[in-house]
Amino acid sequence: MSLKECSYNGPGHAAAQFRHLTIRQLRSLAALSAKGSVTAASSHLGLTQPAVTQQLRQLQDLAGLPLVQRTGDGMLLTEAGKEVLALAERVEAAITDCQGALDLLAGRTGGTVKLGAVSTAKYFVPHAIAAFSKRYPKIEIKLTIGNREEIREAMHGYDLDFAVMGRPPADVTVDVRQLGRNPHIIVARKGHWLEKDSGLNLTDLVHETFLTREPGSGTRTLMEGLFQKSDLEPIIGMEMSSNETIKQAVIAGLGIAFISAHTVAHELAEGRLVVLDVAGLPIVRQWYVIRRSDKVLLPPAQAMFDFLGSEGSNYLPDVPELGGR
């Protein structure tokens, strides 16, 4: 009997029987969602196709609702299937947390913290990690770097204990600790023709070429909002996924950039880049440490979450006095 042919006994049946579900059933659904077919899911799990089909069939019977549907793009989850998948993610996170707690109790490890950070934060997060590690040398820190959309997507799951980013995701319930100010400025190479001008407006920059981050990054979104408020559209020269590449391109004279001051602190101090005096800048946002409200933190992760919330601002790069023009 195929999945499509399963019988469904209604939500009342599911409420009574769902307690009998197994982790194998949940993992079969998660593998099907990730791989798109029973064949690929069975290969991923190291099981036979009939075994995976049976697990999925039993899970659908327990749910009392269809969990998957066959489409031209493969087997996709229904809305009910997505709800069960969310349960599977929570269960996997709980299993991982339990193993970590047992390892702590047994003295096998000092614990592991899984930290995410948007790419702009990589200029100070490693320094904060180093300071924390001096206090807790047995705790292992696993750092994941990505743009805002990538970290926001990671926050939908339970793999990360918490993340350092700017604007918190609106579609996830989170607990937030404020870390510090994050000023955004426009920089140019030393000797740029606008370097010594004061009181510039955005209209003075409409003929300049901007070197920008890729769509989806927080910096790019903030820059676009800045120009949209003035009904202007900047000239985009190149899109780059790396702040380091943007800095080098600006220094080489390929254009100017709207960027977090924390990413260019060294270049400004060394005189290789200059801040253009533009009205309305800097735009000051905040850095936050964010975790899912329903994510239970083990003691090592809780210790680092508290550390970043109380002392993280000490590791932000020093930037020139930018004022509030």
From TrEMBL:
The keyword Cell division belongs to this UniProt entry's keyword annotation: no
Keywords: DNA-binding, Transcription, Transcription regulation
Limits of the HTH lysR-type domain: 21-78
InterPro entries membership: LysR_HTH_N, LysR_subst-bd, WH-like_DNA-bd_sf, WH_DNA-bd_sf
Database matches in Gene3D superfamilies: Periplasmic binding protein-like II (3.40.190.10), Winged helix-like DNA-binding domain superfamily/Winged helix DNA-binding domain (1.10.10.10)
Protein function: NodD regulates the expression of the nodABCFE genes which encode other nodulation proteins. NodD is also a negative regulator of its own expression. Binds flavonoids as inducers.
Similarity field: Belongs to the LysR transcriptional regulatory family.
Protein name according to UniProt: HTH-type transcriptional regulator CbbR
Organism of this sequence: Bradyrhizobium diversitatis
